[in-house]
Amino acid sequence: MPQLNPNPWFFIMLLSWLTFTLIIQPKLLSFIPINPPSIKASTTTKTTPWTWPWT
Asked: Transmembrane segments in this chain: where (predicted)?
């Protein structure tokens, strides 16, 4: 059964992870976001309890 032979597939997986880790990831992390997140002040609204007509 060739799918159980890890010899070629392990090398391909290792090579792809090394490519991602060493080449692609530093390029992606160097981007600066256009809209950086800002801290908004949380506003609390005063709620009134519901008055039930049958009580």
From this structure: 6-24
